[in-house]
Amino acid sequence: MGNVNQIFIISLAVILLGYFLKKLKILNKNDGNSLVKIIMNITLPALIITVFIDLDLNANLIILPLTNIVYGFLAYFLAKKLFKDIKIEDAGSLIISLLGFNIGLFAYPFIENIWGKTGLQYMAFFDMGNAVIIFGLAYITAASYGPKRNELSATVITKKLLTFIPLMSYLLALLLNIFNFELNFYLFSVLKKVAGINGVLVLLVLGIYLEFKLDRSELKKISKAVIVKYSFGLLVGIALYLILPFGKLFNGVILLGVVMPTGMAVIPYSIENKLNTKISGSLVNLTNILSFIFMWLIFKFI
After folding, report:
1. What is the CATH number of domain 4-301?
2. GO cellular-component terms in the record (predicted)?
3. How far is C-alpha 69 from the chain's CA centre?
4. Which one in 45, 98, 144, 244 has a CA-CA gap of 20 to 30 Å to 201?
5. Per-residue pLDDT reduced to its tens digit, 138-153
6. What are the domain boundaries of the chain?
7. What is the spatial distance between Cα 75 and Cα 65, in angstroms, rounded to a whole number?
């Protein structure tokens, strides 16, 4: 387990490098989008496969994705009740901001360096449930609050899940593990090399996307969503951390998982369904900063 402060300082330096490269116009948001594609389709799948291939599977692991899925549905019903009396496009953006988390493009480098391979394996399992919420429940919710709410279909949702490369990588890696399939030495070495650059790319992307501006006209709604997100997350996370009998690291992964920032998918979902993109963008930016602080505190005290 690495020194938490040291790892956070180094990681913050890389994030700030990405931020200042953007400010100096050496990189821009389009470069960030390209890096996200590389991460989601190449380096993250490589990391998932190398992490899962020798994972010691046991029945307890299924609790991690199930916790994420159940939490997502609870958050949905809570948010639907709290935001029922506001404009439909605002309500849609606020509700989807509470469904799912940004884990793969936020937490993985920190977990790998501080909690090691076992911590990363646990969080990868938790993230499997997150994919179902983001590309299932959040997608359906966004569409149901938009003008095309009557065009929703199971085929579209299934296609979205089946074409999400990280989720397919989880399933492939699990199958390889279950059937004790050993990858060719050279193939495994290439995957390890590719996986090795994932952390730096993720941190650079965080810097490129980092913004300190909030839309003040929507501040009241944004503040309410943030308070609900972290109050509910900490309440559930701390309760499960204290109650579950699976050990400090396993329980800590759940606590960390439920205070991760709003998933970046809410922005394209809001654009696609004509929801309030100002709210979505502000929540992504603000929760990235707040979750960074919560993550440091959790790593520090667990």
Report:
1. 1.20.1530.20
2. membrane
3. 13
4. 98
5. 888 888 887 766 566 6
6. 4-301
7. 15
